[in-house]
């Protein structure tokens, strides 16, 4: 069992509530049963997202991707066998977006159902073919960033073994394995609850249980048998149907009420069930009724605990400026400045701000990074022109509630010269002092392609303006009442199309007042080494802290997208070929490649800027390696 999984840690503290029926809700909203529900991930993502949000609002802590039938065999019935990966990735993306709009620590479950046709000898699908189909689906969900896998509604234990084997062979994420039982207490392939539970555990399931076909009353005895015969290390799950369906006109109606589900939720909890949810016929109302029972029945100390948000340290509560009287150019240093000026190695991690007004999970992730050893949090400014919470506000939340200093990216793309000055002064007033000046991505690439960019100044002008503020002057050189204390950073792009121009602009940024340099993500160490050599030949040695950007890649598809579609990012052919050849192991190769780049650059950089794209679990693997390698490098130079 994966003992470090946040999901399993939550289960050890207390039960979790899963969502209810996706198909039931889609049909209630006008989608006919004959339609391919999974295709809606592509054609109607907002519809799927709305259902996820309804279940989250009802109290679900786990939402399942709309991918139950997104395997090659079921999709082939709708002419969509070619779209397995696209549909699964879209399903995970929609669920992730729903979570981002929530302020709760929601887990994303990659949902996988049976193939829809029996395996040989009853059918034509060989076990090896079943394995390949499940592997294809699982890889797509894994690459899209699910937190766990939920295999459900299997009635043939051989097919379940194939699905479990496919998932377990590519990941150690938690797996929930649920089978469907008949009224006689056995699965269709003949096994009883005890055999099913034991077999699924041996095949790598972390949670086993029952879903679909049976209502709460009929399911209770099956679940009880599992609870009484399994080890304490195995968690049990129950997700019943809302009774048997009744046909009314052209619709199937389920008669089990939310109150009835609440009654059985208490009984399941008394048995020791740790994962409770609903299947066919259940709605957000059923989930809300069970949520109330869980809140009333589980003692506070037994509930799954959220990450603790510490109060801001006293040192971060107020930054007072005390420059020497005869030298107004010297500013009060930030924690980042102290680290770099004392030649300490710095690890900064990027966090994208929330996409709505809710920010609890954002702060929880920041706390996890703090506890994992990050020195600084980097917060982009609507990167890729995608609208998110104002990053100055997001930075203030982190510094106030998590106690970790931030670097705020600041672009004049969306602000005229008046607004630029106003916003940076406001940032300073709220304790935001580390600013990375960037020009910004064109708005035509983002959420509102018809929005206009302003750019009264570019990043060089922005640096000069903040340098003036540090001198107690405004952008026109007029004296102000007080000096600011910005620690000003600038960006460098060693893989720029015109390297000579980028070198020239870097020198202008330094002459305008930049104090440290952060690079775009580097995927080949030689790119940065060559860039620095050319800089030295033109302008002399770079005499300020250099922080290298690192972005772990998790798939060949991601590398191709970044290389071909994202301005400023160049991923060499040999790196993309290596990821392609790695296949299902691409995520592992991406981490190894990141480590190799750092090994080559460790002697010449004073920090790293890790861009995990919300895959924060990578930090716990990369950060110890980076620190140990940097320490070894430092010893070798003594």
Automatic annotation (TrEMBL):
GO-annotated molecular function: metal ion binding; methionine synthase activity; methylenetetrahydrofolate reductase [NAD(P)H] activity
Stored InterPro entries: FAD-linked_oxidoreductase-like (IPR029041), HCY_dom (IPR003726), HCY_dom_sf (IPR036589), Mehydrof_redctse-like (IPR003171), Met_Synthase/Corrinoid (IPR050554)
Domain Hcy-binding as annotated: residue spans: 4-294
Cofactor(s) listed in the protein's UniProt record: FAD; Zn(2+)
Keywords: FAD, Flavoprotein, Metal-binding, Methyltransferase, Oxidoreductase, Transferase, Zinc
Cellular component terms (Gene Ontology): cytosol
UniProt keyword annotation of Metal-binding present: yes
EC number from the UniProt entry: 1.5.1.20, 2.1.1.10
Record Pfam families: MTHFR, S-methyl_trans
Single biological process term from Gene Ontology: tetrahydrofolate interconversion
Pathway annotation: One-carbon metabolism; tetrahydrofolate interconversion
Positions bound to Zn(2+): 212, 279-280
PANTHER family in the cross-refs: BIFUNCTIONAL HOMOCYSTEINE S-METHYLTRANSFERASE_5,10-METHYLENETETRAHYDROFOLATE REDUCTASE, METHIONINE SYNTHASE
Name the UniProt record assigns to this protein: Bifunctional homocysteine S-methyltransferase/methylenetetrahydrofolate reductase
Lineage: Bacteria, Bacillati, Chloroflexota, Ktedonobacteria, Ktedonobacterales
